[in-house]
Every structure is written in structure tokens, then in C-alpha cells.
Amino acid sequence: MPQTPAPIPPRVLTVAGSDSGGGAGVQADLKTMLALGVHGMSVLTAVTAQNSVGVQGAWELPAAAVRAQFRSVVDDIGVQAVKTGMLASAELVETVAELLTDVGAPVVVDPVGVSKHGDALLATSALGAMRTRLLPTATVATPNLDEVAQLTGVRVADESDMRRAADAVLEFGPRWALIKGGHLDGGTADAVDLLTDGTEEHWLRAPRHDNRHTHGTGCTLASAIAAGLGRGLPVPAAVAAAKDYVTGAIAAGFALGAGIGPVDHGWRWRTG
To answer: Is 137 a catalytic residue?
Structure first.
């Protein structure tokens, strides 16, 4: 009897930098995609020497290499969703924005500016291209509070500022903005995010876990959203599912090396 071909899982592409420590970047993206049942593919934009205590070096790839990787994957295999992360320079931001204009799939833009340890991962000269070229391609933009300030000048001190931050991000053209309040001070028991398209609002709350091993949180969340969109979920449902996944991953984060360890991308397998 002929064998029935295995079903093809949704295909999701990450366009991001490498984290040699395995907690963030392309490595976190692919782990997240596997955990959430989609086929992850990658376009590498930069290589970092990185571990639990920081980034010791970063080398961006030529735009031609980024373009060739993207065309190789998209033209042959196709994609159901794309996630962008570390893009490093204005040239790479503009290159990726151009490639995304006709991709025909949902795009999650994580406007990575600095690492968990405070190391710069986006040149100041690239902020204009991020605002005017890349963010308009986004189905969902996922800035944290530092990235909101970097992109818009809006500084979020409490929950009441998050709407103003979202409005400022939406002015650059993404369909939805997810303002991540995980860094919000004030001693709140919950980690609060705001998802809005300027009309409807979704406040997402989850317990704030007392765990410093949170390396890769932003990459993981954005990739989880892309996985949900690739599986056909509407944006609010994809974001809610991603928030649930990353909350569990933070709770299960573990120590590696001498600094900040990673979230646990496989926490559901280990607790399940």
C-alpha cells in the first residue's frame, strides 16, 4: 500500500541574528517554532559572539547574502509568516523591508535595539529606516519599552502611558502594535502588555515570575506570534497564545554560565 504523505506543517521564516549562546536570536526563534508545531526557516543577518554575560562581538552579513538567503527560501519553499529580529544596520533594514513588500504573508517585526545585557544591536543611523521602511510592513510590531522610547521618544512610566506609546508606534504604519510592559516598574504583580490596532484594545496580563533567567524573551514572543499567524490564527489569538507560551518559558528559565540564563523553549515537553 502506498504511504500517505506526511502533512506539511506551516512554514515560518525568521530574519535575524545568531546568538552563539543559544538563548536568543535565530536559535531561540527556531526552538520556539519547533515547540509550537511549525517548520522554522532562517535568514541570518548577523553573527554575534554572545553568552550569558553579554555580547563580545557582532558582525553583520552583506546585504547580498541576506537577499540571497531570503529569495532561496521564499521562492522555493514559501512562507506562511515571517518574523524579523536583529538587523544591525540601515542597509540591512532597508534590504529586508524591500524583500517583505511582496511576501504575501503576515510579518512580525521585533525592532531589536539592545540585548538583554544592554549591548547595542541596531545602529543609531538605522532608526529612520526602521520607522519609515520596516515598520510599515508589519502585521504586528512588538517593541519593548526601551525600543518604544528609542523609536518614538515616548517614555512609559506606568500603564496609563502604554496607550500613548501604542499610538506613537502605530503612526509608523504597522497594522497592530504590541507594547510589552515586562520592564515596567512599579511593583505590579502582573506583566502587562497592550495589543491594539488603534480601534480595538487587548490588555494581556500574566503573573510576573521572580526569575532573572529571561534571556531571549523578546525573540521568543515574536517568534511565537509568527507561529500562531502561520497557523492561521487572527492577531489577537496569536498574541494571546504567544503570551501564554512565553510566560511558561520565563517561569522555567534556567541558569547557564555566570550571567543571565535563557528562557526554556521546551518547557511544555518537560512539564507535560
So the answer is: no
Set 219, 220, 253, 261: catalytic member: 219
What pLDDT tens digit does each residue of the chain (272 aa) get?
Answer: 677 888 999 999 999 999 999 999 999 999 999 999 999 999 999 999 999 999 999 999 999 999 999 999 999 999 999 999 999 899 999 999 999 999 999 999 999 876 666 667 777 888 999 999 999 999 999 999 999 999 999 999 999 999 999 999 999 999 999 999 876 765 556 889 999 999 999 999 998 888 999 999 999 999 999 999 999 999 999 999 999 999 999 999 999 999 999 999 999 998 76
Q: Are 235 and 217 in contact (CB under 8 A)?
A: no
- Is residue 248 annotated as part of the catalytic site, yes or no? no
Is residue 219 part of the annotated active site? The answer reads yes
Q: Please indicate whether residue 216 is annotated as part of the active site.
A: yes
**Would you call 247 a catalytic residue per the annotation?**
no
Catalytic (active site) residue 128 = no
DSSP the chain: -PPPPPPPPPEEEEEEEEETTSSSHHHHHHHHHHHTT-EEEEEEEEEEEEETTEEEEEEEPPHHHHHHHHHHHHHHT--SEEEE---BSHHHHHHHHHHHTT--S-EEE----B-TTS-B-B-GGGHHHIIIIIGGG-SEE--BHHHHHHHH-----SGGGHHHHHHHHHTT--SEEEEE-TT--S--SEEEEEEESSS-EEEEEEE-------BTHHHHHHHHHHHHHHTT--HHHHHHHHHHHHHHHHHT----TTS--B--TTHHHHH-
pTM of the model: 0.95
